[in-house]
Predict the structure of Chitin-binding protein.
Amino acid sequence: MRKKIGAAVVGLAIAGVSFVGTGSASSHGYTDQPLSRQKLCANGTVSNCGNIQWEPQSVEGPKGFPAAGPADGKLCSAGLSQFNQLNDQRNGAWPTTKVTSGASYNFRWQFTASHATTDFKYYITKQGWNSNAPLTRAALETQPFLTVPYNNARPPFTLSHSGQLPNRTGRHMILGVWTIADTAMAFYSCSDVQF
């Protein structure tokens, strides 16, 4: 009996060290307003998504966008090959969230755990962008239309903030970037919207 208890304690200790040692595992999130591609995969609305259906919160890449960060064409997957399905435009088949040009909008993030945060930034595609090509910096406005400073605070598990949408018509993409304060990483979330 003593050996079994000792083995169980050692096993739990190893599991605890493994969990603690993977700091990024506790700091994940995605947008669900507007619905992000990773959320659409996770809730089963879109199929053939690969691993992202089980890990919608894990689209993490280098921070510093747009000067740094994931490569063009891989922005929606944060450059992670296991989530490459997020970069595929699917001939316009991604479902869209209906939004109103110039209106106030409530953006919402879901987090599996909190992390010290620099800010949240939102970029939008230019009018006339090529919606059949993977998302690039050239397709996006150079400045975010909304920046929400967070001053190294940790967000709750659900966070909403309001901002004004740009004036647009037709189909567009919004790229949400959640910048982490105490790592070299950020989380990326692509949402297809229809004005």
Notes: The helical segments are 2-21, 37-42. The CA atoms of residues 54 and 127 lie 33 Å apart. Residues 2-21 form the longest helix (20 residues). Residues 28-194 form a domain with the Coagulation Factor XIII; Chain A, domain 1 fold (CATH 2.70.50.50).
